[in-house]
Amino acid sequence: MLPCSLLRRIEGFDEFYEPIKLANQSMGLQLPTPERMGRKNVKRYYESMHTRVKEFISSSLEDTFGTLIFDGLLDRKGVSVVNILLSPTGSQKVRKIFFLRSMYTGSRRVDAGLYARLCEESMLEFEKMMPICATVSDNNFSCIKAKEILLERHLHMLSVQEQPHTANWVMQDIGQLLWIKEVLSMVTAVIADLTNHPKLYSNFKELTTEYNFPNSGRSAFQLDRYR
């Protein structure tokens, strides 16, 4: 999982998103590294990374409207997870997809109301860059119900036919892009840098505990592991 997002399960903590502009091999050069940040706290490092990536996306968008893609599932431990993506409407190119959020809800059941709220929060976060005009979801009951809630509250939105494991197969396709592998390699290097600075790495470990990072688990990209 890219470190520009801190997964959380506790209500009230600041949420970190992971907006990623795909198919730009030079993007990694625009992100701050622990070396550049020195020994400043890791939370500021994450915030800076999040801001840089958002600015990069905002400056590169050409399309006017977007389609929200979301998928809710239970992980191997039975905890509910939701993945939310954004794609410019009408684009069939994988490079045009942004990964907004992957979040452990802390619930042992899939909750349509919670999924709808998380989607709305993502819509508000990005509405100035790309207003949402349509949505597509996984085809399980809770996701379909969540989409119905969204359509009731946002009458301008259109519904796209549900697909099984919508966000999962999209992310698997994204994971095959060469530049994603390069970014994951960069993440490995970042973790190595953190490890070489005991105090900085200690702060990093404290944050992963505070925000309830999974200790270990296969990432959605299926190319890396949570650290």
Summarize the structure in words.
By secondary structure, the protein is an alpha/beta fold. It is 42% helix and 15% strand. It has one domain (27-210). The protein is built from eight helices and five strands. Helix 5 (141-153) links the parallel strand 4 (132-137) and strand 5. Helix 4 crosses helix 5 (141-153). The longest helix is centred in the first third of the chain and has 19 residues, at 42-60. The radius of gyration is 17 Å and the shape is globular. Pfam families: DUF659.
Set out the fold topology.
Blueprint: H1 27-30, H2 34-37, H3 42-60, E1 66-74, E2 80-88, E3 98-104, H4 112-126, E4 132-137, H5 141-153, E5 158-159, H6 166-175, H7 178-195, H8 198-210
Parallel strand pairs: 1-4, 4-5
Antiparallel strand pairs: 1-2, 2-3
Helix pairs in contact: 4-5
